[in-house]
Specification:
Layout lengths: L28 E4 L1 H6 L14 E11 L2 E10 L2 E9 L5 E13 L4 H8 L9 E3 L5 E4 L10 E7 L8 E15 L2 E11 L4 E11 L4 E3 L1
Antiparallel strand pairs: 1-2, 1-12, 2-3, 3-4, 4-5, 5-11, 6-7, 7-9, 8-9, 9-10, 10-11
Length: 214
């Protein structure tokens, strides 16, 4: 019995299962370049970057902002990570971002949801004062308010099975870390047939060579 995850033959895959760059796939093992991790040491990151292996549990691909966006969801114990690659039209990665989910918030009623998604709400406002005591400025759009960016994502946890559908209403924020480095906060109101919640992702960008796939 092989100790490694087998790659699914293309003719065995679900017809919508995406072909992702760098041989990213469900079951792959990810490592981040140690030198790139060390570049962020001492820069007051909210969450330290992972130095251990990540196991890919889900993948997706979608068009957004005129780019192909490849996403990989990965686990390290109970910690959930999101690796996102912005790609050229031919699938060549331009950059990679690594986020970890720091909060999951379940607004209990319409009034609480309006705080997040209503006109002038938190997702789309000019800045976010986060629980970590840091302030993040909106990275997308201009002015005092920008409506959340909406997208529908099909996440595959199994190359042969139908995907899970997630409707996102999201916005990206950032703060300067110094030394030409930036930390991002990605707010996303997510809805599936089973639940609705707000996820808070925090992370950084790296050069594409920093992501190792096995």
């Amino acid at each position: 019995m092989s100790l490694f995850w087998n790659k699914s033959a293309k003719n065995d895959r679900h017809p919508g299962y995406p072909d992702l760059p760098l041989d990213l796939r469900v079951g792959a093992i990810l490592n981040l370049d140690l030198g790139e991790i060390l570049r962020y040491e001492g820069l007051d990151l909210t969450v330290a970057l992972p130095q251990e292996e990540l196991i890919v549990s889900g993948v997706s691909s979608q068009n957004l902002f005129g780019m192909r966006i490849a996403r990989v969801y990965a686990n390290q114990g109970e910690v959930r990570w999101l690796v996102q690659l912005n790609c050229e039209a031919d699938g060549t990665p331009k950059d990679v971002s690594v986020f970890t989910c720091t909060q999951e918030i379940y607004p209990p009623n319409a009034e609480e949801w309006d705080v997040w998604l209503g006109e002038g709400g938190l997702i789309g406002g000019p800045d976010i004062n986060a629980p970590n005591g840091k302030t993040y400025q909106r990275a997308w759009g201009q002015g005092q308010y920008m409506p959340p960016v909406e997208s529908d994502e099909a996440v595959y946890a199994d190359a042969k099975a139908a995907p899970a559908s997630i409707a996102h209403k999201m916005m990206l924020y950032s703060r300067d870390l110094g030394d030409e480095a930036t930390e991002y906060m990605f707010l996303s109101a997510d809805e599936t047939p089973d639940e609705a919640l707000v996820r808070v992702w925090v992370g950084v960008s790296m050069f594409t060579g920093a992501l190792k796939v096995f």
